[in-house]
Amino acid sequence: MNSQNPKTLFIGRYVSAQCWYRCALPAIQMENADWIGLHPIEEEFSETYLGALLGGSVSEYPKFTEYDMIVIQQPRGEPLRKWIEDIQSKGVKVVYENDDFLHGIWKIPDHQYKASYSKKHMKEFEICMKQCDAQISSTEFLANEYKKYNSNQFVCKNYLDTLRYDVGIPEREGITIGWSGGTGHDKAIGPWLQVIFEVMARNPEMSFISTGMNYAAALEEHLPGRTKFIPWTPVECYPYMLTNFDIVICPS
Questions:
Q1: d(Cα 182, Cα 111) in Å, to the nearest integer?
Q2: What is the rounded average pLDDT of the residues 110-121?
Q3: pLDDT (0 to 100) of residue 106
Q4: Are 207 and 228 in contact (CB under 8 A)?
Q5: What percent of the chain has pLDDT over 90?
Q6: Among 37, 7, 2, 3, which residue's Cα sits nearest to residue 19?
Q7: How far apart are CA 185 and CA 249, in angstroms?
Q8: Do residues 225 and 205 lie in contact, with contact meaning Cβ atoms separated by under 8 Å?
Q9: Dmax of the chain from CA atoms?
Q10: Rounded (5°) CA angle 121-190-200
């Protein structure tokens, strides 16, 4: 292994936003690094196959043992732990990549995927964390929380390719309030959604757009024709979607 410039492969789950900014962007910035997004399979796979190749910087399915280091996004389960062990036995370092507090998801009442993060399922993540040579976390908080499973922690903060966001806002009439986000925000949204309704009721030129999760529906009944819902967009299109907003509600 070339410790100065190891040949590295980043493996992301699907070709999601998390795959893009946690796997693709680091690989693009590094020398001698590739990235792929896989449709993962959790149970039946071989030493050479982890799931369907959905995208990446390579033109064909990679040979894992040709890399010095593999950074893999949130692997879970005994079969995948065994795969990590087998790859390590061939001299490949394996790094666990994580940018979420996995152990807190099951506590969020309105998170639609919380059943997949029960205490039982957490054991599946933990055994893979323990098996890996190191772990990359997105914040100091996560690094400290997961030291108990892998003491070799590194913090790699989330990254944005800022040039992609250097786009102009088109001219338009009126003012649009925008929100963009995923599951688990129901309780957080309640207080400010009422405020938006009150502001829009006083200002007929204002409209509201919800992207990702559809919170526009809650306002449409009372403010017909003044709300819009935009489903999930590819992450490379996200900066252009944001140009629809004049006022942005976090966590956009």
A1: 9
A2: 67
A3: 59
A4: yes
A5: 50
A6: 37
A7: 12
A8: no
A9: 67
A10: 140
What burial class does residue 246 get, using C-beta atoms within 10 Å of its C-beta: 0-12 exposed, 13-18 middle, 19+ buried?
Answer: middle
Q: How many CB atoms lie within 10 A of CB 73?
A: 22
Rounded Cα–Cα distance for residues 142 and 15 (Å): 23
pLDDT tens for residues 44-72?
Answer: 677 778 888 988 999 899 999 999 999 99
Q: Which residues of 199-230 are buried (b: 16+ CB within 10 A; e: fewer)?
A: ebeeeeebbbbbbbbebbebbbeebeebbbee
Give yes or no for residue 2 having a pLDDT over 60: no
Q: What's the predicted TM-score (pTM) here?
A: 0.77
Rounded Cα–Cα distance for residues 235 and 159 (Å): 13
DSSP output for the chain: --SSS--EEEEEETT-HHHIIIIIHHHHHSTTEEEEEEEE-SSS-BTTB-EEEEEESSSS---GGG-SEEEEES--SHHHHHHHHHHHHTT-EEEEEE-S-GGGGGG-TT-TTGGGGSHHHHHHHHHHHHHSSEEEESSHHHHHHGGGT-S-EEE------GGGG--PPPP-SSEEEEEEE-SS-HHHHHHHHHHHHHHHHH-TTEEEEEEES--THHHHTTSTTSEEEE----GGGHHHHHTT-SEEETT-
Q: Give 73's Cβ-side CA count (13 Å radius).
A: 26
* Rounded distance between C-alpha atoms, residue 70 and residue 79, angstroms: 17
User: Can you tell me the distance from the alpha carbon of 76 to that of 43, in angstroms, rounded to the nearest whole number?
Assistant: 10
Q: How confident is the model at residue 12 (pLDDT cuts 50, 70, 90)?
A: very high
The model's confidence at residue 213, banded by pLDDT at 50, 70 and 90, is confident
